[in-house]
Amino acid sequence: MPQQVLCDECGEVLYQGSDLKSPEEIHLMYNGKCPKCGRKLSLIPQKIKVLPVGSASRGYDGSKLNVNKR
Ligand SMILES: [Zn+2]
Predict the structure, then answer these.
(1) Residues with CB under 5 A from ligand 1 (ion)
(2) Is residue 11 part of a domain?
(3) What's the rounded Cα separation, in Å, for the pair 15 and 11?
(4) Is residue 68 in a domain?
(5) d(CA 40, ligand 1 centre) in Å
C-alpha cells in the first residue's frame, strides 16, 4: 500500500511512495519543516494517510444521474 504524507497546513505532498517511512525520516528529509509553507512538521504521524491503490481515484460518474431531472 502506498503511503502519502501531506503537510497539515498547505496540503503539500511531503512523501509519497510504497515504502513506509517513519515520521522521523520525513522530518529529516525536510529539516523539520514544510518546503512549501515552512510549517514546522510534527513528529506525530497523524497526517499520514495510507491510500488504497488506484481504484479510489475515480468517484462515481455523477453526470448520468442528472438525466431524469425535471
Ligand atoms: Zn506546508
Answers:
(1) 7, 9-10, 12, 34, 36-37, 39
(2) yes
(3) 11
(4) no
(5) 8
